[in-house]
Amino acid sequence: IVVAAGLIASDELAKKAGLDCNNGVFVDGQCRTSDPDIYAAGDVAITRTLPAGTQMRLESWQNAQDQGIAAAMSILNTGKDYYPIPLLWSEQFDRRIQIFGHVNGNVRLALRQLASDGSLHFYLNEDDMIVGVIGVNAGRDFRFARQLVERAVKILPADLVDAGKSLKQLSDSVAVTL
After folding, report:
1. Which end of the chain is more exposed for a tag (fewer CB within 10 A), N or C?
2. What are the tens digits of pLDDT across the range 67-83?
3. What's the pTM?
4. Nearest-CA neighbor of 5 among 60, 77, 80?
């Protein structure tokens, strides 16, 4: 068993074992490395993420836990493909910041101001598909924003910005694109 913790991928042992690496160890949806008898999970594992399909390391305790479970299930031949959506959060003084999905790259921003003095920053690709959201003191609204990312829906930016339109109703009314 190899355990790696921290922000720098400790992939030297994997490289010596001849595994495909590049600042981390590449894994498939079953957490298998380029050697089908070796599995990797957590901060060192480079996996495909949804909805963008980007390959990356997810450096959060939530992913380490979920991917560790996925790897164990794969080893037991009871697993299903694990393609996570990036998720993290932080408390910064009086701000709770929650991030879900992809919030960088070639995306457009739609900013929704909330009555609670919070905000939701939606990130859309060129097809108006929501690929990520950052919530700042967004509380309950973030839950519905997260559903929009999980379902990879297409919504006009104007509908996202309009705080008069319920996110729950938007989530319930749109067709799923995945």
Report:
1. N
2. 999 999 999 999 899 99
3. 0.81
4. 60
Residue 111 has pLDDT above 60, yes or no: yes
Cα dihedral 54, 58, 63, 65 in deg (nearest 10) = 130
Q: pLDDT above 70 covers what percent of the chain?
A: 92
The strand pair at 95-101 and 130-136 is best described as antiparallel
Beta-bridge partner residues of 112: 120
4 pLDDT band (50/70/90 cuts)?
low
Read off the tokens for 56: 């990356």
Question: Of 83, 86, 87, 85, which is closest to residue 28 (Cα–Cα)?
Answer: 83
Q: Which two tokens stand for residue 126?
A: 């060129």
State the residue for tokens 């509908």. Answer: 159
DSSP 3-state of 72: helix
Helix (H) / strand (E) containing 112: strand 108-113
Residue 77 has a pLDDT of 93
Q: How far is CA 143 from CA 17, 96, 100, 149, in A?
A: 42, 14, 10, 10
CA dist., res. 71 & res. 153, Å (int): 29
- Tallying the residues shown for the chain, one arrives at 178
